[in-house]
């Protein structure tokens, strides 16, 4: 096998060998005949018909006599897994007015009961096969298709055959009875309810404007209460028979198995499928059409103003053209690359203007073929104030300049360098592309009626066309992007009377002067010209940690690094830097600056270099610069590659040694925080996002979401006063995992992190700050301003924290999975009260407090007491009796497969080992990793439930509509 051989061999040094042996769940079935309908060598596979794009030879294609098409390939990422996708060419656009929501309803019904699966057997059956419902088994419905997804772990021929059999029964022979429809509709309505609120209303209103006169204007996959409530077995069956036919189906399978075996199983289980009745052509989705009398030079059509008091301002206008199928040729793809280049140039100018303190928070131009309904060039932005006209004029001025004058060759070269690094990285990483992504790529290509290309082909096409790029050619493509049949716009605002359709239409119809000031000037900046971090440090210790080939390196200044050089993931290097004390170091009165740090700390620059200069340095390189505040440490994170690793390390170290303090990112982050705050109260989920962490930490001010008043009081000077000392605090840990030269990286670390000045220690009082858990008592109530049928409920219990009992935290994950399955069944299947209840365990390992187990759900207000009662009942049942063997295995087998798959990647080990330089106890605990997840007996899980659930009631939070109390909510008022 070619997938991760070294990583797997090393894994055997850590985990008990017996646990790595696949455990077949099924007896071997008779051999499946060889496939008979594979496209022969020299033939043209169905996906490449009419195309001159070179065929990706790793895919094998076939077409059955009944019209079903398939694509299969060998892929070993993750190892021992097969990813299957069944795509039906029918979505919400295929529904008649009386059938709105049927495509999505069918998605649910196929999982409810089918030829080989009895009522509600799908989820437990897939769990017994090792697949986790919701991640390994899933489905999606869009306007144009419905896709059923299975990622089958620990695969063998028997499991593959059984899975294909079950999938065929679901797709070919679902049980669409009145009883099943009646049982599933409440679950779909619960999903609809959870999606509802101001965001959905604004989205629907905007879509009705942008796609006026087309089917997409009035058809969303979730449907309507009226049509779903009227659904019957017969009416849903009629939709099924019309569209669920082999000629409308494509099956994709990619995984760690002989692709001819994959093809053979598809042919075996789907080859005799026949549609019922005559085939029906897809409906006409319609074209965007300008209103009569519109100016051909500036055809502004429908405009909508959507007032939602709880949403921030957002403005979208689109230049629209009819969508038509294309011949997916090399020349066509060259045109797409030129279009993408034109968009990238404009977007860089728009972002540069926003960074400098423009009239808008963000702005972006993007081209998209939307649901086979329109070819659209979108312009989307968020005005900073109610002066939408100034923001619109500023953005149109930047676009007008791009339409009037060609870009400079320097600008073009910069964007081409960015494209090149992306395409080269895709080639370098082709061997480790995961099977689920490869399968999804085929599905998406089918959906947009295009072919699929290997990464090498994309790079070849790019290299062959880049020399043909001229400023004038980019100008031509820019003008084409902003030429169309009609221009439509939608403005979402919280204020009535702030704008009118007539005013927006007039503003879009005005001539705008070109604004050349936003052009990003060419700059010559080199890493060679940047100041050194300091004198290169000395290595004082370097030794293996005893796991895999991982080493720890310590420098004289106290910085420690954990390095694992391996070739498991070609072209990838993960870098994480941990420093300081995290939330422990945040003073409660500085909480607003902790919030701003996420958005503004990186953007504030390094030394004299601002964000623009850092972007220039990054041109043609693969860099990252994510920042997080953790429980016990701050962290930087990046995915890079070996040839850019030293510069990536320099950027991280320089941020600690010589941080910049540009005020503009702070000002911009304040504006973004204020704009977002009011929307939190618009629905239950927003209230949870705003308040839950604060409440679960017993109202610790460090975890409070800043209010607009707090943002107003914050200043760039205060930001610096808060963060400057925090960036100086130690300890510092650097983790580098991936394909790199170890000796060269140690030397690069000497010149970067090893050259840092000795770090300040966090005060002892900081390190001892606990995170408290609130006392259980009366239910805490929060109100939202959204729909009256929406609520949310949370029940939580305190758990543990720290490294000492880290093994217990893994066992808690097993207990929580059992809890989650039971709560899902109780709330979703039996009561129809909640679409997606979830139970989570949080065990912070960097600190000694703050752990909790929490169950939460979005539901109807009257179902809040039901949720609390069911959650408490399940908690007490788990504490009073051990689970059955079948229930236990349904949880443990997916966990076993998850660990086996995840442990073949570098990030898995990085996350397990981060913090080990400060607490080496993490290292020996790795030896028990799989056993803790898969060999914790039911009696021990019961003891854990008694420990955490049996001694105290859960803390409760209810989020209900304004004007209601818990008593009135429980009565459905």
TrEMBL record:
Keywords: Hydrolase, Metalloprotease, Protease, Signal, Zinc. Residues 1-27 form the signal peptide. Pfam families: Peptidase_M16, Peptidase_M16_C. GO terms for molecular function: metal ion binding; metallopeptidase activity. InterPro entries: Metalloenz_LuxS/M16, Pept_M16_N, Peptidase_M16, Peptidase_M16_C. Belongs to the peptidase M16 family. Transmembrane segments: none annotated. This is Peptidase M16. It comes from the Bacteria. The keyword Transport does not apply. Residues 232-416, 724-893 form the Peptidase M16 C-terminal domain.
């Amino acid at each position: 096998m070619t997938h991760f051989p070294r990583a797997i061999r090393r894994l055997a040094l850590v985990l008990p060998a017996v646990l790595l042996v696949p455990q077949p769940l099924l007896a071997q079935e008779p051999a499946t005949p060889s496939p008979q309908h594979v496209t022969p060598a020299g033939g043209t596979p169905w996906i490449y018909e009419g195309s001159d794009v070179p065929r990706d030879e790793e895919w094998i294609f076939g077409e059955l006599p009944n019209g079903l098409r398939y694509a299969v390939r060998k892929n070993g990422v993750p190892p021992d897994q097969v990813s299957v996708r069944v795509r039906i060419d029918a979505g919400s656009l295929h529904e008649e007015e009386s059938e709105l929501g049927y495509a999505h309803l069918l998605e649910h019904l196929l999982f409810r009961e089918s030829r080989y699966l009895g009522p509600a057997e799908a989820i437990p059956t897939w769990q017994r096969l090792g697949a986790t419902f919701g991640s390994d088994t899933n489905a999606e419905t869009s306007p144009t298709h419905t896709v059923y997804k299975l990622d089958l772990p620990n695969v063998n021929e028997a499991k593959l055959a059984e899975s294909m059999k079950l999938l065929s029964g679901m797709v070919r022979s679902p049980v669409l009875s009145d009883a099943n429809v009646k049982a599933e509709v409440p679950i779909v309505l619960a999903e609809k309810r959870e999606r509802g609120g101001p965001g959905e209303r604004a989205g629907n209103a905007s879509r009705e404007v942008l796609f006026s006169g087309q089917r997409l204007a009035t058809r969303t996959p979730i449907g309507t209460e009226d049509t779903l409530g009227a659904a019957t077995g017969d009416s849903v069956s009629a939709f099924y028979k019309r569209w669920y036919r082999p000629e409308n189906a494509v099956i994709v399978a990619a995984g760690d198995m002989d692709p001819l075996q994959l093809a053979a199983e598809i042919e075996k289980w789907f080859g005799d499928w026949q549609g019922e009745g005559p085939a029906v052509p897809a409906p006409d989705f319609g074209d965007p059409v300008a209103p009569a009398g519109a100016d051909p030079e500036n055809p502004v059509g429908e405009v909508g103003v959507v007032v939602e008091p709880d949403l921030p301002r957002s403005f979208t206008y689109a230049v629209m053209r009819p969508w038509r199928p294309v011949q997916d040729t090399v020349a066509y793809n060259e045109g797409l690359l030129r279009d993408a280049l034109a968009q990238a140039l404009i977007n860089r100018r728009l972002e540069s203007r926003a960074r400098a303190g423009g009239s808008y928070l963000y702005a972006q131009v993007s081209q998209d073929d939307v649901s086979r309904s329109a070819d659209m060039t979108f312009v989307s932005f968020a005005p900073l104030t109610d002066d939408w006209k100034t923001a619109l004029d500023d953005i149109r001025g930047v676009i007008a300049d791009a339409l009037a004058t060609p870009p400079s060759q320097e600008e073009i070269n910069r964007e081409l360098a960015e494209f090149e690094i992306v395409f080269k990285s895709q080639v370098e990483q082709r061997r480790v592309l995961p099977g689920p992504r490869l399968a999804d790529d085929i599905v998406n290509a089918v959906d947009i009626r295009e072919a699929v290309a290997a990464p090498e082909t994309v790079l070849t096409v790019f290299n062959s066309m880049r020399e043909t790029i001229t400023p004038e050619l980019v100008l031509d493509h820019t003008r084409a992007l902003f030429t169309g049949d009609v221009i439509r716009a939608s403005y979402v605002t919280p204020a009535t009377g702030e704008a009118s359709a007539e005013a927006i239409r007039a503003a879009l119809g005005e001539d705008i002067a070109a604004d050349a000031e936003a052009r990003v000037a060419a700059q010559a900046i080199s890493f060679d010209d940047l100041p050194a971090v300091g004198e290169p440090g000395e290595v004082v210790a370097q030794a293996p940690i005893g796991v895999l080939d991982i080493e720890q390196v310590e420098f004289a200044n106290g910085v420690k690094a954990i390095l694992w050089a391996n070739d498991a993931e070609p072209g990838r290097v993960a870098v994480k830097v941990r420093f300081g004390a995290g939330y422990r170091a945040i003073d409660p009165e500085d909480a607003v600056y902790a919030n701003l740090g996420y958005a503004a700390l990186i953007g504030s620059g390094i030394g004299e270099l601002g964000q623009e200069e850092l972007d220039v340095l990054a041109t043609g390189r693969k860099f990252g610069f994510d920042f997080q505040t953790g429980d016990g440490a701050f962290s930087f994170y990046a995915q890079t590659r070996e040839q850019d690793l030293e510069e990536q390390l320099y950027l991280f170290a320089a941020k600690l040694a010589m941080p910049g303090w540009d005020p503009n990112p702070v000002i911009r982050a304040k504006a973004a925080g204020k704009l977002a705050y009011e929307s939190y109260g618009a629905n239950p989920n927003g209230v949870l996002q705003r308040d839950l962490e604060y409440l679960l930490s017993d109202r610790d001010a460090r975890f409070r979401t800043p209010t607009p008043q707090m943002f107003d009081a914050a200043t760039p000077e205060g930001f610096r006063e808060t963060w400057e000392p925090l960036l100086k605090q130690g300890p510092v840990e650097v983790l580098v995992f991936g394909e790199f030269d170890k000796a060269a990286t140690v030397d690069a670390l000497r010149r970067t992190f090893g050259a840092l000045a000795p770090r300040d220690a966090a005060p002892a009082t900081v390190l001892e700050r606990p995170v408290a858990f609130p006392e259980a008592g009366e239910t805490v109530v929060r109100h939202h301003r959204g729909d009256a049928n929406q609520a949310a409920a949370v029940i939580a219990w305190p758990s543990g924290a720290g490294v000492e009992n880290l093994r217990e935290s893994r066992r808690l994950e097993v207990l929580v999975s059992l809890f989650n399955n039971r709560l899902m069944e109780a709330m979703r299947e039996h009561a129809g009260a909640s679409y997606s209840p979830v139970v989570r365990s949080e065990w912070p390992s960097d600190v000694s407090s703050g752990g909790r187990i929490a169950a939460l759900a979005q539901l109807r207000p009257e179902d809040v007491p039901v949720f609390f009662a069911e959650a408490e009942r399940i908690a007490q049942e788990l504490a009073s009796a051990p689970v059955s063997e079948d229930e236990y295995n349904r949880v443990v087998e997916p966990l076993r497969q998850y660990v086996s798959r995840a442990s073949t990647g570098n990030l898995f080990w990085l996350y397990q080992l981060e913090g080990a330089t400060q607490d080496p106890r993490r290292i020996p605990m790795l030896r028990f990793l799989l056993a803790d997840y898969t060999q914790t007996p039911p009696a021990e899980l019961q003891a854990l439930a008694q420990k955490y659930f049996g001694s105290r009631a859960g803390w409760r939070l209810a989020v209900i509509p304004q004007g209601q109390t818990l008593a009135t909510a429980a009565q459905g008022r």
